[in-house]
Amino acid sequence: MTPRRAVRLVLTHRARAFVPAWLRAGWWPPLPGGREVRRWARAPGWVGNGLAPAVAVAISTLVAWHLGHRGEELVLVAGVALAAGRLVPVVWPAPVRDRHVARRAEHPDLHAMVSEVAGELGVRRPSRVCLAPVAESGGTRLGPRRTELWIGLPYLMGFERAELRAVIAFELVFLEARRSWPLGALWEVWKAGVRMKPAVQREIGAVVRALVTEADMAGCRVSDPRTTANAVLRGMLMSLSFDWFVHRYAADLPAHRYLPLDLYPAWRWKVHKDDLLARLMPRYLELSAADSLGLDATSRMAELGVVLDQPPGPAADPIMSTPGLAVEARFARCRLGDVLAGTPAMRRELTFPDVPETVWDEIMKCRHDQVLRAAAALTGREHLTLADLMEILAAGRGAELVREHREGVCTHPTAGVCVLFPVLHRHLRTKGYRYGQALRQRELIGPGGDRVDVIQLAEAIERGGPLPEIVPLRYQPAG
After folding, report:
1. Adjacent-strand bridge partners of 138
2. Contact of 216 with 263, CB cutoff 8 Å
3. Under a CB-based contact definition with an 8 Å cutoff, are residues 111 and 104 in contact?
4. Distance CA 198, CA 280 (A)
5. pLDDT at position 84, please?
6. How far apart (Å, rounded) are the C-alpha atoms in residues 39 and 32?
7. Please, which residues have CB within 8 angstroms of residue 161's CB and are 6 or more apart in sequence?
8. Could you give the count of Cα atoms lying within 13 Å of 476 in the half-sphere of its Cβ?
9. pLDDT, tens digit, for every residue of 258-278?
10. Residues 6 or more apart from 104 whose CB is under 8 A from it?
11. Within 10 Å of residue 103's Cβ, how many Cβ atoms?
């Protein structure tokens, strides 16, 4: 694509992309550095609407009076000051909650790795390295020459060092490419998801894909193709697993006045001790084969000439074990901030093992009721039996009953298991089965000490196996 064509596409679809993002976002001029990141943000409305004009009028009037102006001149000066104070936006430094500066004294290994990779690739070293609360990485332009490399905590604590080198190389090269004015604007148009004709979307998508491939090849230069491909797959699975964990275990707790501060240690336990990546892999491959993920790991690995169909194992030597409880707790509050709106203001901060079992039961009951309501709507019958559910599953309509399996990556192998799981789980809990581990809710322990894997039980029922005595034949209507 020629520069002229790129300029035309940007002007047609998102002209403001030519205004530097660092200027619009408030990263420039730079603010003094510290442990927390700050940027310029608009002041609250009452400051811009009332306080700022009043202060401007008072100061200008005092200056005019001191210089000997009287009468109408004072009114004119005050009017000009009032208009300026109303039209000029008032900004002040605001903390960026989803960034934590990785200082060289606290993280020397990370800074040494970033400097080494930048030197090998011949690109600029970022002005600032930050930690982020998401399972992703990225680069941000902070000004004409200042840049920031940010890496999510899950990456730092879950990647092998050789894989992390590939990730850093990718981000630095991708950031360097976006220094080009047309390419940076095109990337913003693509990232914003602007509506455009399919032909134009393919044209811009080809440019973005070329940038991604070039950045992946940079990862091969500081590592090797297989390690880079493994980093791509691990990054995708870790991002999906973290989002799944937040949705499945944490997002519903604020509504019950609880906020889990051990979000990151709990997620790491699921990854390392409960094979979370391996249980997500089949559904990921299914969606990837259906081309439902866009610029996904599979296509990127194909560009590298490497095919991986097995999930990566836990990292043996990550560059970071933990940034500290204070940072993890702050990031937990930040990551759950998007689900806190509309929930009770008074919340108790705790850890997952301290959450009462009755809360998990209420959450599971909601999912149980959602499935039964959806099944009742499909069949037109209020009192459902197991045969009714199996009839829906046999007709291939199980995905219509469970949104999470239909819309994204899920740990359940099939939509039928997703349908049966909350129903069976709810029934077993009412029969006296208890949780063995708060973060492994698929496993329940019976009054006699017997252990039941609810997912395996649902799989057996879906395949038409014999029904155990603990399975209900009829369900109550959803409340």
Report:
1. 150
2. no
3. yes
4. 31
5. 67
6. 10
7. 113, 317, 318, 319
8. 8
9. 889 999 999 999 998 888 999
10. 111
11. 14
Calpha distance 155→475 (Å, rounded): 44
Tokens matching residue 162: 């050789």
Closest-CA residue to 229 (of 241, 242, 213, 209):
213
Alpha-carbon distance values, 454 to 249, 268, 284, 422, 424 (Å): 17, 23, 22, 9, 7
Bridge-based pairing state of the strands 348-350 and 258-260: parallel
Task: Using CA atoms of 143, 146, 147, 153 in order, give the dihedral in degrees to the nearest 10.
Answer: -110
Question: CB–CB of 321/157 below 8 Å?
Answer: yes
- Give pLDDT tens digits for 277-330: 999 988 888 887 776 555 577 888 888 888 888 888 888 889 998 888 889 999
- d(CA 297, CA 303) in angstroms, rounded, equals 10
Closest of 75, 91, 81, 85 to residue 49, by C-alpha: 85
35 exposure class (CB count in 10 Å sphere: 0-12, 13-18, 19+): exposed
Per-residue b/e over 441-476, b at no fewer than 16 CB within 10 Å? bbbbbeeeeeebebbebbbbbbeeeeeeeebbeebe
> From residue 456, how far is each of 274, 414, 429, 445 by CA, in Å?
15, 12, 16, 14
Distance of CA 103 to the CA centre of its chain: 24
* Own/partner long-range contacts of 100-104 (Cβ < 8 Å, ≥24 apart): 100/35, 100/36, 100/37, 100/130, 100/131, 100/132, 100/323, 100/327, 100/330, 100/331, 101/33, 101/34, 101/35, 101/36, 101/37, 101/128, 101/129, 101/130, 101/131, 102/129, 102/130, 102/131, 103/35
Mean pLDDT, all residues of the chain: 84
Cα–Cα nearest to 106, from 290, 321, 283: 321
Give the residues across from 2 on adjacent strands.
none
DSSP character for 395? Answer: T
